[in-house]
Amino acid sequence: MDIILVPGFWLDASSWEKVTPALKAAGHTTHPLTLPGLESVGARRGGITLKDHIAAVVDVLDGLDGKVVLVGHSGGGAVIHGVADARPDRVARNIYVDSGPLGEGGVINDGLPTEGDDVPLPPWDGFDDADLVDLTDELRASFRARAIPEPRGVAHGRQRLHDVRRYDVPATVIACQFPSSLLTEWIDAGHPFTAELARIRDVEYVDLPTGHWPQFTKPVELGQAILAAVERAA
């Protein structure tokens, strides 16, 4: 099975390097991506939008045969949901890593501080304590050293969706910074945050308790959780 891995904000393809070995060992082909504007700190980010990130993933998918599994971390969840909307018949499963689908008209995060066309990685005190669980001083230093500013147009751009068949794409939500039981409570309560997730017809939940960056804090466990979901899709 081809597996396309979409990183969250401030990260490139290398952020998946400790997650993919388990997938490769099981015979799957991984495609960790570096999205437009995330090639380097000096890359051009002006004019790059959420639509561009979705299109970049669609281009990779269109170059592969058969159905694929999409994995999206954090803001990457909005991207893979957009891809499922664009190619609902090509996606075997969407795997949301501490993330979820972003509905029509939603934005990923327009509250982050910006510097021109850039959204730099904020200081650690700009995050909730739950985000930073298990992120040691060493991991924080490594993360900050590798962090690349996110394009402002991706963080602020509105999701545009067109095909209700996206709700037929099975989904796995790997819940990290808060338990999946809280997600289901929000769904039952009709919370707007989970409105799009509630519309997906086949959703499974996997709990992986840690902070918001399990690819750094629990990469082996994350790899195994993704693998289990991929094998159910296969």
TrEMBL record:
| Pfam families with a match to the protein in the record | Abhydrolase_6
AB hydrolase-1 domain: from which residue to which, for each copy? 3-222
> Which superkingdom, per the lineage?
Bacteria
Spell out the Gene3D superfamilies in the cross-references: alpha/beta hydrolase
Q: Which InterPro entries match?
A: AB_hydrolase_1 (IPR000073), AB_hydrolase_fold (IPR029058), Sec-Metab_Biosynth_Hydrolase (IPR052897)
A GO molecular function for this record?
catalytic activity
PANTHER family named among the record's database cross-references = AB HYDROLASE-1 DOMAIN-CONTAINING PROTEIN-RELATED, ESTERASE_LIPASE_THIOESTERASE DOMAIN-CONTAINING PROTEIN
Q: Could you identify this protein by its name?
A: Esterase
Cite the source lineage. Bacteria, Bacillati, Actinomycetota, Actinomycetes, Micrococcales
